[in-house]
Amino acid sequence: MFCLTKRMSHTGQVVLSGIFFFLSMVAHAQETIDIKQFNLVTEQVKELKKTDLALSLKQLTTFENVLSSLTVEQNLLYFKLLAEIQIGQNKYSAAKKTANKGLNIGKRLASPSILMSELLYLRGFAFESLGDIPRATKEYKSGLEVAESLHDKIQIAVGLINLGAIAYLTDNYKRSLILLNDAYNIAGQTDDEELKGTANTELGIVYAHLRQDEQSMAYYQQSYTHFKKAGLLLAAHNSLHNIAISHTRKKNYDQAISVFKTLITESNKDTPSDSMFTVYSGMAWAHLKKADSNPDAAYEYLLMAKPYLQSTEKNDHQLGFYFDEANILYKLGRFDEALNSIARIEEILVNHQDMPRRKRRGYVNITNLKAKVFYKQEKFQQAYETKSRVLSLTDKLYENEDNRSIEQVRLELEAEQADKKNEILNSQKARYEASFNKAKLESDEQKIYLIISALLALAFAWVLVKLIQSQHKLKIALNVDKLTGTANRHRLMLKSQQAFEVAKVKQTHLSLLMIDIDHLKDINDRIGHSIGDGIIAKVALICTDMMRKNDSFGRFSSEEFMMCLPKTSLKLAMETAECIRAGINDHLWQFNHLEKVTVSVGVATLTDDNDLISLVKRAEEQLYQAKASGRNKVCG
Questions:
Q1: How far apart are CA 212 and CA 204, in angstroms?
Q2: Tens digits of per-residue pLDDT, 380-399?
Q3: Sequence-distant (≥ 6) Cβ neighbours of residue 307 within 8 angstroms
Q4: pLDDT for the residue numbered 395
Q5: What is the number of other CB atoms lying within 10 angstroms of the CB of residue 537?
Q6: Is 71 helix (H, G, I), strand (E, B) or coil?
Q7: Count of other CB atoms within 10 angstroms of residue 87
Q8: Amino acid 78: pLDDT
Q9: Where are the beta strands (DSSP E) in 550-607?
Q10: Of 174, 31, 182, nearest in space to 500 by CA
Q11: How many angstroms separate the CA atoms of 276 and 560, rounded?
Q12: Main-chain dihedrals φ then ψ at residue 387, nearest 5 degrees
């Protein structure tokens, strides 16, 4: 019995081996078929998702169960396409998970793939749409690093566009324009119509934020043309929507309504819920604000928008809906309901001080509407208190604009005075010209005509000279410190900001020196402010002599200077600072009762600073350290 069992087992093994060999051959053939089919289907999906997201998703997910038989690169392509479709459907949480899966698989690669860059961008966009701006920024930077390492021009442009969008979302419009214009120039060197459309769209948005409506509209129209050429119907509709919003901003409400109607007519089952929400809410706002305001129609369109709100993950849409609802209900006289909508906004914006300026501006507007509601309800005490809060919020909204200082306000006052002087001179010029023309027409005597002409020509020349002098004084007032002849704080911060943005974009070194004259107050008190002014001027001259061509130097405050050193590492910056300290320490001062003047210097080099102010603060912290450790020192 034992021998029979053993024999039967051996025979079974042979049979099983044959079966497994056959199955492996079939599996190998199936794998080959799957790979070939996958490559074919993905090309179809790339085209199909431009117009039909649902069908493209259906075709792509037929490979969901055979991913293990595909290569790593093909897996990355699968998850990239899936994340793009999910983002097109406004499923941002799902897109984030999909991108995560793809990026985890990508870790198996020996060298980076451009698909990794695209997946990082997609994950970043999901974070951005879900309101996590810091995480989105991190993902975009990582994606850009991969694209730059592979020298992929198109994906470099996409990364710049993504970071440009983050910049305007965080109120950094200057950096946004730099990044987006770089992307726009790169896109112009390619045949990629989608990339050109996206670059134009984002430039349109940033110019809209800057209230440059004509430029904004031009970019939107160009983006629409590029998307149509690329066959991207959904993206082209997005451009039309931006055009409608631009009409709304310019108060061309009838034109906006016409574009919105086109979008409603051309929408289909595949149109994302976010898009339909913004179209109907846009229609509501246009009907409310147009000359023959129709609050009833506005409310009907807002109710049409509401079902789409339930399927969106964007907090901004929630805010927009309740803002529109509160304004429309106020117009309809439904004040208690309007207050309920305002309360919902206040819940969402509970930490409004930490939000971008555009959202804080919206918070001020809704608080102002609340005051109006109380007034209509004859709750005058509450109306007064709320209006007072509006004034306080408005002051806070603008108190830090352009990093204003007392010096900045002084310069603006001087500029205003110069502008008024220019207006007076221009008015005189106009009167002289009128007198000249009148004299020319009415004079019968050539001699009188020549005399008047000569006098008026002299007067006209005098006015022109005064205008030129006034403009020159204005330029000096805006840019130059009167005592030292160096750049004033306004000019210094402007030049440093430019250097900071270039360093961030090009990933180069940038260092700042904060230089403070030791014991200047004691010198002023002991031997006079005129001596103190002479010392300030001389220190500025010594520092200027040590500058390179591309460095920026100027007076930061009464006794403090700042030097901005592009393309300079911490080591070189410390050496420069030491040269300045030693030069001032060794200088022979020609003032009585004064043998030596010293300075303390703080040094900081750009690392992960998000803005110039952060870098300046770090340099000042080092300056305080130098002073605390005995002065006449360099700390960095």
A1: 9
A2: 888 888 888 877 777 666 55
A3: none
A4: 67
A5: 15
A6: coil
A7: 21
A8: 93
A9: 552-555, 560-566, 599-605
A10: 174
A11: 56
A12: -65, -35
